[in-house]
Amino acid sequence: MALLQISEPGQATAPHQHRLAIGIDLGTTNSLVASVRSGLAETLADDAGQHLLPSVVRYMENGSTLVGQLAKEAAADDAMNTIVSVKRLMGRGIEDIRKNEFGSYEFVEQDTTVPRIHTVAGDVSAIEVSAEILKVLRERAEKTLGDELSGAVIAVPAYFDEAQRQATKDAARLAGLNVLRLLNEPTAAAVAYGLDKKADGIIAIYDLGGGTFDVSILRLNRGVFEVMATAGDSALGGDDMDMLIARWFMQQAGISDDADHAQIRRLMREARRAKEALTEAETVSVAVERKDASVWQGELTRSVMHELIDALIKKTISPCRRALRDAGIAVGDVEEVVMVGGSTRVPRVREQVEAFFKRPPLVDIDPDKVVAVGAAIQADVLAGNKPDEEMLLLDVIPLSLGLETMGGLVEKLINRNTTIPVARAQEFTTYKDGQTAMSIHVLQGEREMVQDCRSLARFSLRDIPPMVAGAARIRVTFQVDADGLLNVTAQELTSGVQSRIEVKPSYGLEDAEIEHMLRDSMEHAKDDMDSRKLREQQVEGERVIEALQSALQTDGDQYLDKAERELIEQSLSELQKINLGEDVEEIKDAIKHLEKTCSAYVERRMNSSIQNAMSGHSVEEFES
Fold it and tell me: How far is CA 488 from the centre of its chain?
């Protein structure tokens, strides 16, 4: 049966109307914008015909900004006011930034959750710097397409956490963009290659950009594009290759490690030029200026560069192996391997990837443009220009999400590699009699104990009606949207009181922290489970101890003679002592012994409660 869509007068969309939507690749080194025009997705060029916009922003003394090539050219001469590779700063705290960056900016020394960089034009955050880049891309698109935009899909590394994704959305909002969706870069690349048009199959996306690395295993089945598993490092990329080459230059030229920021920028620029030249040539001439204005001249061969960067490339293979394991497949199950990111132009990278996956990777599309093109195709669908489009993209979350329970344990509500968007709920209860508030601690990670996971947020649910321990019903709901952002809601079901929080951590994960968390979870799996069993049993012991102490204080003298009470208190004391130990079975036996000792006392209390409840009522009332 056909359905007729009826709109209010003036609100119907004309059949020929095409909503203008764009896809953006906000890259570490370069950024691009693309759109679907006349049925084809293509990147949009500036007035000079350049498609790539260097992700560089220079702040001027008069308050104005330069973005792109002009800013890049001034990076060495005005290093402290010219921000490069800002993507690596997104969603991170100041300590992470200082530890992981090659060189440093002048950060504002103040207690703030968002680090700010001091420039001659004022203090700016990474979010504001990214917004300047996005503004230029938005203006380029509006000028090229001839009208205002309905929305944008922005591609982000698959391993960006909540803080980094939220920072990206905040930057887009500052730039005046309506974000239709944040799309994982590997997924966008597969769409650009048209792999979504296959009937089914398993595809690996190897994405090595200027500052980030991801590998994703995608499965297409009956029109559903699903990310089976993802792995990577949000602080590993071509910049790190340039860093190693620059340090080699410093060693050869006798430049000390205390080189100033401007000299480091010049070294990095020369290293990048040499790396790009060695993509085609076997040898490249190098000239490096020292502080005394003298110049060291030499040459860098491709073989020497391979020796310098092989360890970095190896660091990308380990996540590939882990992603396959998480997806439950072997290398031979992968039908296609797609190369994404400018750093995949390095021949050594392609050699190592081909050797691992045992098949030549796809390199037909410009690796710099492929992500923006895929994002544009998805933006065209989300804008409503292809209502019959059957492609469905299902991304996953990279690490499990859960909350803290009594005893410092982690209760996972959403496991890693769960398809998003997703919502999961679980009911919890109070631990003490009369408890009127509950603290909710949201965690991220794979370990069983709180101290081994990452804290995301804390909030409180208050005004819980006072009840006996275990009577309250508190439902905690985790909702992860299509952008990978988390909302947590806690509600007491009998009263309806509710509290919620949108998780916006103040900083992102440190370098290789995700890899460490996953590796630790596997290495310590048995120890973690043993620790969890012990802590659960200890929590049960604590609950029994507290409940019995409360009961004895309330009516122990009423139902027990002196000898009975002494016997119970002796068993209670034994449990308290044993509960501090690490023998699970011994704790269980102590609890059973105490329960047996208290059986007569419990029976008398229960009978008394029943009598009080029935007092003044007839049996017939209860039967009816």
Answer: 16
